[in-house]
Specification:
The chain is an alpha+beta fold. Helices cover 42% and strands 24% of the residues. The strands form 3 sheets. The protein has a 5-stranded antiparallel sheet. A 4-stranded antiparallel sheet has the order 10-11-9-12. Strands 1-3-2 form a 3-stranded antiparallel sheet. Helix 3 (33-44) runs antiparallel to helix 4.
Length: 326
Amino acid sequence: MAIAKAERLMNLALCLLGTRRPLSKRELRESIEAYVEAFRSAESGTASEDSFNRMFERDKDDLRELGLVIETVENLDGEVGYLARRDSNRLPPITFDAEEAAALGLAAKVWQQARLAGAASGALQKLRAAGMPEAEDSYEAQHSALEPRIPVHEAAFEPLMLACRDRRPVVFDYRKANAARPGQRTVEPWTLECWRGHWYLAGWDRDRAAERVFRLSRITGRVRSRAGSFTAPVPDVVTVRETVETWAGETATRTARIRLRSGSGYPLRARAGSVREVDGDWDELEIPYGHGLDAWLVEFGPDVVVLEPADLRADVVDRLRAVAKG
């Protein structure tokens, strides 16, 4: 079965790359033996024409997943055709020095998920087959202790990653920190960012007509894809990263003073500018105060007491009351 599918994909790719004009689904069906057999089965009643259509759509998606750029063109008669232009599927020569090759190898070790690990390994194999040098022994020896990891525990990560890549709108249920129940969001996803061990999605919230950042751990249920294209322009990567950092609380403009129960809240202690022991049970900390700090403090529950500023204390109290009511 695997060999048959690989042969079918290869034949489809050769047809799309070898044509100078878009080929319709009917023409492709008549040119590829596996499709001819599938359609004969459909005519004999052992399968439906829908089965052939599903096979073709899966094959087309698989080729795009492998990196083939397939264009969909509609002619004057309204018939849809497909082709893969050679200039769109040809890369210029790629060269890496030993240091760059070592950096790529190190980056490929980051992902713990099997799907991403396989993609990274496959990409490295293709680059090495094209002549990318292996990492120098001295570099490997120097950095052999580095084993970077970016853990992802949220089920929403993979569908959102694919939606960001394919520029597909998504719908999901999202529970805000101060809300008792999740609400539905329709989002045009831009990028995923990891900050302080948590993953965030930055994108355009259609219902609010504004850019928003969502913490993946607060997404409940399944992420569903929606048809159609983006309605808002996608900003450059640097701008999105700055937005994520700001909404997550990275950009601090003030200082907050809190009391923290002894032996707890180590992430808060790591950010503190100063720590003073009050008694055997509590310490007093000064930490940077930026957007999102109230939501972060709520996660520590009764182990944190906000002393000042007053507006931060009020926000934390409101969030705790909302949680208690839920």
